[in-house]
Design a protein that fits this description.
The complex is a heterodimer of chains A (114) and B (116).
Chain A (H helix, E strand, L loop, with lengths): L2 E3 L4 E5 L4 E3 L2 E3 L5 E8 L6 E7 L6 E3 L2 E6 L4 E6 L8 E9 L5 E3 L3 E6 L1
Parallel strand pairs in A: 2-12
Antiparallel strand pairs in A: 1-4, 3-9, 5-6, 5-10, 7-8, 8-9, 10-11, 10-12
Chain B lengths: L4 E3 L2 E4 L5 E6 L6 E7 L6 E7 L2 E5 L7 E4 L6 E5 L8 E8 L10 E2 L3 E5 L1
Parallel strand pairs in B: 2-11
Antiparallel strand pairs in B: 1-3, 3-8, 4-5, 4-9, 5-6, 7-8, 9-10, 9-11
Classes of the chains: A mainly beta (114), B mainly beta (116).
């Protein structure tokens, strides 16, 4: 069965600190996709990144970076030099091949204080 | 704005009443998904459509829930005889089912249901 675990319920940092959000997943599929979404206080889920199971290259996009390690079934997300605007709930999600449905973690609430 | 839209954004109803929500996906997207999100949790899959066909339903979707996508465009989610446990945010998402790179799911703003 597919499952996504985000063990960190809430994290608080001071602006400009780096922060890493952890995501551990379980699946029996050999082909799958991993995602991160941001949910700001307004409530709308905003897509951040997609990774397929065959691509373990780390990715960097501005202040955001992602570390995908199949050996540990982890897909962690790092924000460098955090900003107040990064305050939101971040969800990691797993989807089956074909994108039939997503399995979401319970989310990590990030509070960035000025 | 050509994103996913949902209507209404908020709905307050009394227990036992029926409610209906609408979702308008991104126009070229052929897949449409419904999720439910309760406080402090991630979204949970309810059902999805490819065009007008409902291809999968979660066990979470009891007999009181029904979803339609009659012309393969907008979709409605109806809850009959609402219960307090139905109070949640109902999210709609759409995607393009293809092998291309744009097949992530795009989410709407959600409909927050409160059952009194």
């Amino acid at each position: 069965a597919q499952k996504v675990t985000q063990a960190q319920t809430e994290i608080s940092v001071v602006e400009k600190e780096d922060v890493t959000l952890d995501c551990v997943y379980e699946t029996r599929d050999t082909t799958y996709y991993l995602f991160w979404y941001k949910q700001p206080p307004s409530g709308e889920l905003v897509f951040l990144i997609r990774r397929n199971s065959f691509d373990e290259q780390n990715e960097i996009s501005g202040r955001y970076s992602w570390n995908f390690q199949k050996s540990t079934s982890s897909f962690n997300f790092t924000i460098t030099a955090s900003q107040v605007v990064d305050s939101a709930v971040y969800f990691c999600a797993l989807s089956e091949y074909g994108f039939n449905k997503f399995y979401f973690g319970s989310g990590t609430k990030l509070n960035v204080k000025p | 704005d050509t994103g996913v839209s949902q209507d209404p954004r908020h709905k307050i109803t009394k227990r036992g009443q029926n409610v209906t929500f609408r979702c308008d996906p991104i126009s070229e997207h052929n897949r449409l998904y419904w999720y439910r999100q309760t406080l402090g949790q991630g979204p949970e899959f309810l059902t999805y459509f490819q065009n007008e066909a409902q291809l999968e339903k979660s066990r979470l979707l009891s007999d009181r829930f029904s979803a339609e996508r009659p012309k393969g465009s907008f979709s409605t989610l109806e809850i009959q005889r609402t219960e307090q446990g139905d109070s949640a945010m109902y999210l709609c998402a759409s995607s393009l089912a293809s092998g291309g790179s744009d097949n992530e799911q795009f989410f709407g703003p959600g409909t927050r249901l409160t059952v009194l």
